[in-house]
Amino acid sequence: MATLTGSKKIKTAVFISGKGSNLKNLIKFSKTKKSPISIDLIISNNFKAKGLVFGKMFKIKKKVFNFQNKFISEKSILLELKNNKIDLICLAGFMKIISKNFIKNFKGKILNIHPSLLPKYKGLNTHQRAIENNEKFSGCTVHYVSAKLDSGKIILQKKVKIKQNENKKSLEKRILAQEHKLYPKAILKVLNL
Ligand code: GAR
Q1: Where are the alpha helices (DSSP H) in 85-167?
Q2: Which of 16, 110, 177, 183 has the most CB atoms lying inside 10 A of its own CB?
Q3: Which of these, 35, 79, 27, lies nearest to 53 by C-alpha position?
Q4: Best residue for ligand 1 mutational test, from 14, 16, 21, 111 (most atoms within 8 Å of Cβ)
């Protein structure tokens, strides 16, 4: 993982596909004194991603790639990352699977947040599946990204109790609030701070 040199912050790109609440939270964290990162680039696969609005709001460069041809999109993204001297990637609700080749270029420098206690409930519809299975707890996980979906080494997890009569929406909301606390903590942890 990258290290801090002097007072320079680690240039970070956040990848999003949707509403971007984790992105907004990471931007806010990046602006605090204790943050070792700056958010310098927002990447999306979705022109309509609501979270792209935070690019304009916080004056952060944003780029959208359609992924119709994954190989070409990833190649362009890698160039963009290089041109912007990005050293850390945070996936935050990015709903595309990144290729082995891409990961190789950023080995140990791509993090993801997932709304379950991995290795349980990889993939989509995590909250619904946890409720249907009568789980007592769910939660969220920040992990390194590996070539297999939601399977890289776990960095930090936070448990959230599933209440009686809990529905997908209420659980999602409570877990998302915990995600916002967990992601900055995980970043500090991987950077040994
Ligand atoms: C978050 O709950 C994140 O954990 C999840 O998408 C949501 C994005 O919300 N990610 C995944 O499911 C990845 N497998 P946001 O756009 O408000 O940050």
Answers
A1: 100-105, 126-132
A2: 16
A3: 27
A4: 21
What's the predicted TM-score (pTM) here? 0.96
What's the 114 CA to ligand 1 centre distance in angstroms? Answer: 6
Tell me which amino acid residue 154 is: I
Q: Which fold has domain 10-190?
A: Rossmann fold (3.40.50)
Is 180 marked active-site? no
Decide: 37 and 30 in contact? Cβ < 8 Å.
yes
What are the mean pLDDT values of the chain's consecutive 10-residue runs (193 residues total)? 68 98 98 97 98 98 97 98 98 96 96 98 97 98 92 97 96 98 98 85
